Here is the input.
Amino acid sequence: SQNPPHPLERWQQLEELWTLAIAQLEQIPESNVAYPVAVVKLGEYRDHLDAIRRRTVLEERAEENVAAARLAAQVAGERQKSATNLDEWQQAHASWQLAIESLMRVPGGTTGAQAATTLLEDYTPQRDLAHRQQGREQTGVLRFRLATEAADRARVAMNQQRWPEAIGFWQQ
Here is the structure.
């Protein structure tokens, strides 16, 4: 267990080894001359087992968060490839953001933390690209709405034969 991080499988193996060692010490009868040493070692070994179990939980959490991030990134990439409007770009951006947030929840000192750092370097530019395109799409939607409103006003002005006003709205 020295020099972590270790993969989840290694932590699970270590947990089994400490559990086995504890079980063997528990078999020593009180009448045995080694019993006092066994009692001391039992306390130490149980402490080690508890520490290993905490590390196992951290590594499991790290793996879950990295897996969730990869899944969200896959969805984000697919959405980004086919995005053609504001709603689709918002969904792509939200998926990239979800992937990044999953990576940010990866506990430090785990093998998942190393993977998270690498993936963050890949995902952050993609999220930023989707964010910029989302902004462009929002600007386009706003400009289209303003142009449509100006055209509607121009038509009203034309119907009322207010020609200079109609021309101004059409120019808008």
